[in-house]
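The authors assume throughout that readers already know how a fold can be written as discrete tokens. What matters is that the chain and its backbone geometry are given together, residue for residue. A single example would do more here than another paragraph of explanation. For illustration, here is how one protein appears when written out as sequence plus structure tokens.
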Amino acid sequence: MIKVHVETYGCTRNKADAEIMEAILLRAGYGLVETPESADYVVVNTCAVKDPTEKHMRERIKTLLDSGKRVIVTGCLTHVNPDIIDPRVSGILGVKSIDRIAEAIDLAERDGKLVSVEGWRERSLDKLGLPRLWRSGVAFVVPISEGCLNACTYCATRFARGVLTSYKPELVVKWVKDALERGYREIQLSSEDTGCYGFDIGTNLAELLDEITSIEGQFRIRVGMMNPNHAINFLDELIEAYQDKKVYKFLHLPVQSGDNEVLRRMGRTYTVEEFEEIVNEFRRKIPGLNLNTDIIVGFPGETEEAFQNTVELIKMVRPDKINVSRYSPRPGTVAAKWKQLPGWKVKERSRLLHRLRLQIAYEINQNYVGREIEVLIHGEGKKGGVEGRTFNYKDIILDGGAPGELTNARVTWAGSTYLKGAVLY
């Protein structure tokens, strides 16, 4: 039996794609193995959102090939920058060709090579109609759509995922029910932009959440990233859906810059003021909201004043977590053609924001010490103890508890990135 190892990088969406490929491979008679060392083929499900990530993908593929492994490359890199993929690979599949993974290995075994990197215009693939590998665990990723409605001048991911294609609500609900029946207790709704879900099929995220929360049982829902320009269009309805106990009080709302001119150059079709409006409304009606946001520093044209506007926005809004990224030009994007800022300046700004985000997160998390909170236990923690997620999706390490258990705990310690607590029996 030919043995295959699938390793995946990047977003939760890629994780779901990997499980689809694993199920297809099993049905085709291939064996799955946990490590590349014991595999005949390694499927590398790539991410290409940033230049450093792309370089890591290239190096990883080369390492595997040099060690004698046969490699199939899938994921966003195959669309964003296919020219850097080592020509020795045994196959290249686009994000909407993952259903052909077994075919790719079959052809490689016959000394051929399948290259199938169709764009969204040429090939439509309803991934909720494909099988998934059911692993043991607490959290299960359910893709709700693919692609987005934005045209950001720095983003290359849209070259891979295309424009928005929302999956039918009844299919999403079916996958959620199937996951719950198999013992999963956390449903992660995943998309390039959950905020525009359903806009192409006459519905929206709030209506989908209402359908999912009406399912009986004890479980929690984590909503993935949503862009402000879409969320603001149905804000009241969205907040009402978030008030259901089954929805984590977790909002991932990327602002990217605190300067409206930089946002305009980025192609982000909202203003700083609209971002603030969404945050303020959520905080007013959702107690304990865990706000996550993203910032890109060093974007072409970001003046010192523009950067200071970002700093001031962060100081005022005080997100629980900030994902700070140094801008890196991506092939084929508009912003890659513009004059770039000096690398030393980008690093300097990144370090300043990094220190600020840790300080704010530490101060916010200190307010949890001594509090009693609800926790969904995930299992053995990487930091020791038992890992769980609080009602608002903060990472917490406990002194006990079984995976999938909803329990109450008292927070005993807080750092910038996670909490510690004791289970209240």
Summary: The first strand starts at residue 3 and ends at 8. The two ends are 49 Å apart (CA to CA).
